[in-house]
Amino acid sequence: MKVLVTGGAGYLGSITAKALEESGHVPVVLDSLLTGPRQYVGDRIFYEGDIADRALLRRIIEEHPDLDATIHMAARIVVPESVALPYEYYRDNVAKSLEMFDELTTLGKPRILFSSTASLYALKPAFEVTEEDPVDPTSPYARTKRMMEMVLEDLSKATDLRAIILRYFNPIGADPQLETGYHLRDATHVVPLMAQTALGIRDTFTLTGTDHPTRDGTGIRDYIHVWDLARAHVRAVEEFDAVLSKVDATFTYINLGSGDGVTVRELLAAVERVVGKPVPVTEAPARPGDAAGAFANADKARELLGWQTELSLDEAIASALAWGEKREDVLGYA
Fold first, then answer.
1. Count of H-run helices and E-run strands, the chain
2. Quick one: which H or E segment has residue 262?
3. How many structural domains comprise the chain?
4. Could you give the CA distance from residue 270 to residue 276 in angstroms, rounded to a whole number?
5. Considering the domain boundaries, does residue 33 fall inside one?
6. Residue 251, Cβ neighbours under 10 Å: how many?
């Protein structure tokens, strides 16, 4: 199969492209390089440009008429930044995606695998969420993802577009060969921040939010090795039509997570266990837009994709730490 991967120069996109290759498929990368490093593309088929550039999309399809599906990962993803820059988030995540969906459908390429987020689920006392649970996105970032879900629902009912919407929980780690990993220069995600602190790149890890209604007051998340997440995309692309046939629908939602809730304090203890030494911590209030969190009920992914996580939390943390030691050599900054 040949698969268009938008955002394929990013953290998740580049690792998913590698997983596609390892399964015998051909990724075609479309990325603006707004945040994704050019070196993450490697020698893959690559188009630098905007997902809303209809002329570029037409050229891609003309040059690759055998494209089977699109994995749409291109997006702005930083929660606090979305609070400060809502216009940019709605423009890039919503308006531009809408243009792309319409053009791909017009071009006869209607299969869309969409990267959504678990951060849009409403808070539940037990924190475990299924795909049928209510949503209540608390940040502009999460609301852009929910808007795109609704767009895909409506387009799939009115046009030939078909959508599998993957609600990610919290991917961590790097690709197995440590060729790519988390790349943002100013890390905002918890595991890269902990890894940088454990490696001495940062003086302290700032634990934001200690009064959430969880067992220890810190946010609860479902951490999944990024390689497991990438494998799920391969399965979803390979089984795309079969999945929608099984649910007898034009779209469906699938949680991608380990099925296990881990608080930030528990995650910190796991990092300390892996590195064998304490990680300095400073406590601070929750960041704007942060939610208490949730973890996945992943039964649907097992049923429809035959997929479940294979790599442990400790393996994911070890991968993130190994990447933290190498990334300066790859990217030129720590």
1. 12, 15
2. strand 262-263
3. 1
4. 10
5. yes
6. 20
- Has residue 334 got a pLDDT over 80? no
Which tokens is 149 given? 């879900």
Q: Is residue 224 within 8 Å of residue 170, measured between CB atoms?
A: yes
Active site residue 253: no
Cα distances (angstroms) measured from residue 36 to each of 12, 24, 186: 10, 24, 13
The alpha helices in 213-312, defined as continuous H runs, are 226-238, 240-247, 264-275, 299-305
CB 264 within 8 A of CB 211: no
Inform me whether the pLDDT recorded for 178 exceeds 80: yes
**Range of 10's domain?**
2-172+223-256
Model confidence band, residue 188 (pLDDT cutoffs 50, 70, 90): confident
Angle between helices 264-275 and 190-198 (to 10 degrees): 40
Spatial distance between the Cα atoms of 29 and 5, rounded to a whole number of angstroms: 5
Tokens of 79: 């929660």
Contact 252, 41 (CB under 8 A): no
Q: What is the chain's mean pLDDT, rounded?
A: 95
The CATH number that applies at residue 107 is: 3.40.50.720
* Domain membership flag for residue 301: no
In a domain, 140, yes or no: yes
Separation of alpha carbons 89 and 143, rounded Å: 10
Q: Which spans in the chain are helix H?
A: 11-22, 54-63, 79-84, 86-89, 96-106, 140-158, 190-198, 226-238, 240-247, 264-275, 299-305, 313-331
Active-site residue identified among 40, 47, 141, 182: 141
Give the tens place of pLDDT for each residue, 109-145: 999 999 999 999 998 999 999 999 999 999 999 999 9
- What's the whole-model pTM score? 0.94
296-319 pLDDT tens trace: 999 999 999 999 999 999 999 999
